[in-house]
Write a structure and sequence with these properties.
42% of the residues lie in helices and 25% in strands. The chain is an alpha+beta fold. Helix 1 packs across helix 3 (87-116). The longest helix is centred in the C-terminal third of the chain and has 30 residues, at 87-116. It is globular.
Length: 118
């Protein structure tokens, strides 16, 4: 059964601190203001935060589900075809994107505190 954007919304909003927002005019999900996922303009794909290594692995394993365009080559994002992704895989993807965004926010906050204490 294909995953819908309503499924994406339900999963994303179940993650601690995630809020619905917009990005590039499309529905998006952010944690502490940091983007974790957004609906792509085509309406059939989701843009999800990841690492370059995980993106390569996903695209190699399931090229019909995971892909990128030239625009995303230099950015740690993967495009996910909602019609092809399994809901469990989507849940894992969003949870990883949440962890990456949360870790980045904590790291940035720690750096700011360290600069102030100098």
């Amino acid at each position: 059964m294909p995953v819908t954007f309503e499924d994406v919304r339900r999963i994303a909003l179940s993650l601690q601190g995630v809020e619905e927002s917009t990005s590039y005019g499309t529905p998006a999900f952010k944690v502490a203001g940091k983007l974790i996922a957004r609906l792509r303009e085509d309406g059939g794909s989701l843009v999800v935060g990841t690492t370059f290594e995980e993106r390569e692995e996903m695209m190699a394993a399931e090229p019909g589900t995971y892909y990128i365009t030239d625009h995303y080559l230099n950015y740690p994002w993967v495009l996910v075809r909602l019609s092809r992704v399994h809901s469990d895989a989507l849940r894992d993807l969003l949870a990883r994107a949440w962890r990456l965004a949360s870790t980045a926010k904590r790291h940035a906050s720690a750096q700011r505190r360290a600069k102030r204490s100098r």
